[in-house]
Amino acid sequence: MKNNSLYKSFKAKFINFEEIGMRSMRAFIFTYLLLLSFSSTSAQRNTYFRRVFVDAEYYLLYEEYKDALPLYKELHKAFPNNYNIAYRLGLCYLNIPPERSKSIPYFEKAITAITDNYKEGYFTENKAPKEAYFYYGQALRSIGQLDKAQKAFEQYKLLLKSNEIKKLRLVKKELESIQTAKYFLANPFNHKIAAVGRNITTRFPEVNPVSDNSGNTIVYTSVQKFYNAILISNRRNEFWNNPLNLNPQLYADGEIRTVGITSNGNILLLSRNDNDIFNLYYSTYDKETNSWTPITKFPKTINTSKSWQTFGSLSKNGDTLYFSSNRPGGFGGFDIWMSVKTSAGWSEPINLGKNINSPFDETAPFLTENGKRLFFSSNGHKTMGGFDIFYSNLENNTWSIPQNLGYPLNTTDDEEFFFPIKNGKEGFFSKYSNGKNDEDIYHVTFEPKVFR
Q1: Could you tell me if 28 and 173 lie in one domain?
Q2: Which of 264, 267, 274 is nearest to 250 (CA)?
Q3: pLDDT tens per residue, range 142-190
Q4: What is the Rg, in whole angstroms, of the alpha carbon atoms belonging to the chain?
Q5: Can you give the pTM of this predicted structure?
Q6: Looking at 157, 186, 215, which one is the last position of a domain?
Q7: Least CB-packed of 48, 256, 273, 364 within 10 Å?
Q8: CB neighbours (10 Å) of residue 361?
Q9: How far apart are CA 64 and CA 33, in angstroms?
Q10: Same domain for 261 and 164
């Protein structure tokens, strides 16, 4: 026994080993073996959960929140007192729109253990960063708990240093949005909003509805399990026909969505993800064959290799393109740009200027048939929180200061897509439905006084 390596290791650690009786010694060795086994199992356990953590962080980095969520849930079950995991779980739920309210208890847990020395991406990090207060405020604001959201944003602001200029600007914007939201909720418009209903609404998300100016033809994207279907439906006697799938005609594949159409319904615009770069495409309706041409990519003056082009709108005659892009030279992240089609092709895009564009994001521009009003989405102007829908009038060749379309079209959550018809008196948009975990399409008729 004394020559056994196990015995030697014991003796090195316990001076009085020789005084222990044989039975006690056997019991002690058995206990030590259990400890070694536990230590090995514990090491294997930590190795496994480190791999889970790395995978979850990878998905989070690439904003694949639905993929990251089950991994963080597994980690949270294993480490219920880890405030960093609770924080990461909150981030996932916050970025899955129909489940945002589920982020609140996780953020509430995270803010009880804030550290100034937060190490992002470290498996060993047990506490949460001060940004947990900011995202907690966003979650509260998105579900309309404005007073609690305001307190969370104010607490976050107190934790910031004077040189954290970008973060201070962001929290200032959120606090301003709280006041804007309170105003519009207290002074709602009498917009008439109704779901388009049967034949259009399915168990899949229906997004990005675009229409000719009559409002009787609608083209939209159905986000199905394995692909995005580009569907078209016509309305007769107030009912929408069963939609036709245009993908075979368009030769459309991959991550592609409807983003615009001309008022006569003859040119359809789409945005597609080409190797993590979103580019604009178009298809033309051929009346002789009663079909759509395969999609064609806009030229390099519009689609650049280093920026995203996410939404586009053509003028009535198709010779002027308004589109959103995060290309260099703008005022913020995504700006709205304009290009004109000439005999030489599409011109170099011109930024619409500081009246329209802000230091934040402006997307989804849509021009009315008469060319006198532009609708778009922004999180930089006076919003109720997140993205709201705005409009601007063309006056003396200058776009006016944008106006918020108010509640109930806009809410304290994100509204990112509105397509106008009949010169902006009506329109279509998509939003998450109450009691349903995906987006549906709605029609709105505006109260006349909204356009000041």
Answers
A1: yes
A2: 267
A3: 999 999 999 999 999 999 999 999 999 999 999 999 999 999 999 999 9
A4: 28
A5: 0.87
A6: 186
A7: 48
A8: 21
A9: 43
A10: no
